[in-house]
């Protein structure tokens, strides 16, 4: 339960997950932001207006999945590391994750896929690292994952450094 262990329940996730049809069409952002806190950088970062300006600074982000093209600018803008891009149109699927640890994995590295509860889910391969001026110190790691895990993977670990 989210309030007792910080792990989202199926009902919480259903409220922030695009339809299977939208997921199949290509990359789309998913905001797993479940608390009302004063925060709105994601809406300012979205150049397409897919995350409209907040009426109240404490509201949770709402993504218009029809406007979202999955560019991922919102991923690195989110200080809570709560936004991900999922692309189920690829084989294997690709999940773009915010990543603030050092060292960062390199493209081609095999990583352990981690779920919301911190448990290992399997292995994936780093496809790409975005770490430029737009990311502002929060890298975005593109990870190839089995399609059946794409909606569950929310972090990675690699190497022997405990990350």
Features:
seven-stranded antiparallel β-sheet; alpha+beta; 163 residues; single chain; 5 helices
Summarize the main sheet: 7 strands, antiparallel
- Flag low-confidence runs: none
The structural class is: alpha+beta
- The helix tally amounts to 5
Number of spatially distinct domains: 1
Q: How confident is the prediction overall: mean pLDDT?
A: 89
Helix coverage percent: 10-25%
Count of beta strands: 7
Q: Reading side by side through the largest sheet, how are the strands ordered?
A: 1-2-3-6-5-4-7
- Globally, the shape reads globular
Q: What is the N-to-C order of secondary-structure elements (H for helix, E for strand)?
A: HHHEHHEEEEEE
Beta-strand portion reads 25-35%
Radius of gyration: 15 Å
Q: State the end-to-end distance.
A: 25 Å
Describe it for me?
This protein has 163 residues and is of the alpha+beta class. It has one domain (10-158). It contains 5 helices and 7 strands; from the N terminus they run αααβααββββββ. The protein has helices at 2-5, 10-14, 20-25, 41-45, 73-77, and strands at residues 28-31, 83-87, 93-99, 110-115, 120-130, 139-145, 153-157. A 7-stranded antiparallel β-sheet has the order 1-2-3-6-5-4-7. Strand 5 and strand 6 (139-145) form a beta hairpin. The longest helix is centred in the first third of the chain and has 6 residues, at 20-25. The two termini are 25 Å apart. The mean pLDDT is 89.
């Amino acid at each position: 339960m989210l309030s007792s262990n910080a792990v989202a329940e199926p009902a919480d996730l259903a409220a922030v997950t695009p339809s299977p049809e939208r997921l199949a069409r290509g990359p789309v952002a998913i905001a797993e932001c479940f608390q009302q806190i004063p925060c709105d950088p994601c809406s300012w970062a979205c150049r397409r207006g897919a995350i409209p300006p907040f009426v109240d600074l404490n509201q949770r982000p709402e993504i218009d999945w029809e406007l979202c093209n999955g560019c991922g600018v919102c991923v690195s803008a989110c200080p809570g590391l709560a936004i991900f891009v999922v692309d189920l149109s690829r084989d294997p699927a690709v999940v773009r994750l915010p990543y603030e640890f050092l060292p960062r994995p390199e493209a081609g590295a095999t990583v352990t896929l981690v779920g919301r509860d911190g448990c290992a889910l399997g292995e994936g391969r780093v496809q790409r690292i975005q770490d430029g001026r737009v990311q502002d110190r929060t890298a975005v790691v593109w990870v190839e994952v089995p399609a059946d895990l794409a909606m569950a993977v929310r972090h990675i670990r690699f190497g022997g450094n405990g990350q």
